[in-house]
Amino acid sequence: GRMVRQNIAARSISAMRDWRQRDWLAAYIFLAPAAAIFAALIAYPFADGIATSFTDRAVAQPGSFIGFDNFAKLMTDEHFLGAAMNSLVLTVCVVTMKLILGLASAALLSQPMPMRGLIRALVFLPWAVPGLIAGLSWKWIFDEQAGVLNSLLLELGIVGQPVYWLSDPFIAKFSIGIAMVWHGLPFFTMMFLAAMTAIPADLKEAAVLDGASPWRRYRSVTLPQMREVISVTVMLSAIWTFNSFHMVFILTGGGPAMRTHILPTLAYEYGITQSQLGLGSAVLVSVVPVFLVLIVVLTRRMLQSNRR
């Protein structure tokens, strides 16, 4: 009897091993097309960009290996340092504004109101607008000669002369920030609104029974329940904002005098406009460690959220 049981157990273990092997094989087969696309469209260009950053390659010229010379040059390049500071300040300011306005708008849209569905659709509309169209629209709004914003301000007597929304370096950065907030705010609102509606009703009812004020309920119940969603949304937005090439490129092109460049537009300036592909690649490769840290933290956050 014992030998029979042992044989049955051995056969069961062998069958489980065979099943697991077949399961892994099926998983690899299904993942193969996605892996091939990833290798062709992402992994290879990324590796080629890193390799190019160590060369003096130019457009239509192969170039030669120069080691870390491009990175050493960037460390003393005022345009690179300025673009890095612009990227950091713009990302922090834009993401902070989207966070504050997103929490406020989600709280308002979660309340009963007439035509709430229509209002939500209008609030979410900017997220559906392609980046190119959004950039061109804001460029028309900020136009200093025939733009609607200057025309309105002059008509109302708020200003006595046109405001240089895109020609003055400081005001241009402010204008870019406004356009980025407008375009990215609906994403925050959607994420936060979905998180608010997923909060268990009994928690809110318990807070009401305890006599908590609306602000107290929001601070003690709503925000703690949204903590994971807020952190994931902020990190995703930080990555997207830091890489937001189209808005800066369309509105100012990095000008005036290269004062509004961020790192992606500076990489285009060096790599394409000035035909220094090696230097342009080095601009982007220099921020890879920052993105790797953000991606690792974001992935851990999302995995922890799923486990809970």
Kindly list the characteristics that best describe this protein:
globular; mainly alpha; 308 residues
Can you walk me through this structure?
This protein has 308 residues and is an all-alpha fold. Helices cover 77% and strands 0% of the residues. It has 14 helices and no strands. It has helices at residues 2-52, 69-75, 78-109, 116-128, 131-141, 148-156, 169-197, 201-209, 214-225, 227-242, 245-251, 263-273, 277-285, 288-307. Helix 3 runs antiparallel to helix 10. The chain is globular, with a radius of gyration of 26 Å.
Secondary structure elements and their pairing?
Elements: H1 2-52, H2 69-75, H3 78-109, H4 116-128, H5 131-141, H6 148-156, H7 169-197, H8 201-209, H9 214-225, H10 227-242, H11 245-251, H12 263-273, H13 277-285, H14 288-307
Helix pairs in contact: 3-7, 3-10, 4-7, 5-11, 7-10, 10-14, 12-13
